[in-house]
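One record is kept unedited as follows:
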Amino acid sequence: MPTAGQQTSHYDVVVVGGGINGAGIARDAAGRGLNVLLCEQGDLANYTSSASTKLVHGGLRYLEYYEFRLVQKALAEREVLMRIAPHIIWPLRFVMPHVKELRPAWMIRMGLFLYDHLGGRKKLEGSKGINLQTHYAGMPLDDSLHKGFRYSDCWVQDSRLVVLNCMDVRSRGGRVLPRTRCTGAERRDKDWSVELTDTATSETWSVQTRSVINAAGPWVAKFLGEAMQRSDNKDVHLVKGSHIVVPAMFSHEDAYLFQNNDGRVIFAIPYEQHFTLIGTTDVGYEGNPAEAKASDEEIQYLCDAVNRYFKKTTTPEDVVWTYSGVRALYDESDEQNVSAVSRDYSLDLDKTAAPLLSVFGGKITTYRTLAREAVDRIAPLLDAPITDWTGDEALPGGDIPNGDFDAYLNRMRAAYSWLPADTAWRLVRNYGTGAEDLLGTAASVVDLGAHFGADLYEAELKYLADNEWAMTAEDAIWRRSKLGLMLSPTEREQVAAWFAGQNKQRASA
């Protein structure tokens, strides 16, 4: 809120953008002793960073575009991120049915061999061939499919990863201001005067900062032009990716990677215990990134792609939810195929006066290395150390003993034996050791307060409002969690009414 932002008027770093790149940069900078402010025009992870395929992965298909450096960097990060956030990031096995007309088996074997060895894999299982006629993962698939390959990557709760980084920023003395737009920035020799505007009240105020980091994602170029009156020569492609969610297509815990006729790949992933997540598309985009939606054509495309493989047919009528996000990809080539545009990132530092660093591109898997490189670039200008610390210290809730999620879950189920097993699993998966703070001294379900449907109780909403900047029902049930999938329209309205009451109380306090 503005009053909080005005408590300190001068910062070392102002980060514009509350997606995964901005949150990671702010955390890294705060951990190096810099005084940090992060502002975000919407909720944290409001846009692209909550609209991913929810994977921490090397990007197997990028090998076809010779993106070896990107794949190696991403593969190496998988186990680092599992170590610092074992509650929201965990191993996931993928099954790729072989269709010889699309890619020869030798090419897939070679790609998987590189995938197994490029990133220094230690914990994750290696790849292997499987017989789809006898393996459980082949049971839901069309009988014409005989051969497949099985390999490892990781799942991530993407929007929670953003929030956890921001919680760590706050714990290290930084300020995090969602729903606060940077509406102007005036550069002087040694600092910036940055204008901030509360998007709810339109109240405007200014802070001073020694540096500005533009991590505005799909708005990166627009921010440079409108807030800073600057132009940039980076060739930025806006690309929309859409996903659909349908009732569970299979009962096991492996995911699928399907080859499509157009050369792309489509994922089908077990989702929120009762659903299957299918994605993604790659479509050039020219509109407002905040208004991105899955088109009828994209929905049909995804249905058609999985129908080639599954016995059970999926139609647009089966879709219970869709979401879309827009990525800003940079590319200096004349490549017209947006699927071939690099998912790597570029950092542009202008230090002609007070530093300005702009972030182009990037992906969730490499957010931590992007953040380190970004802060390394400005650290000498701010008398801050060059250090790599973020892979060694757990994110909030990730301090699970020995990183053993299953052991910790069993301990929590024993300590809160009155809690339904599925609810205990979800709370520990979302909050890690923070679930103990959420449950507090509760000794029964009744102690969790009003019940809003599914396994959502008032205690969880209070935790989200008090600790994770949740201010609306959408924040709580579509970003901090995906409980919106399990709640009826009436129950969602009740959650919205609860937040409206809370916000009114806070405004009058």
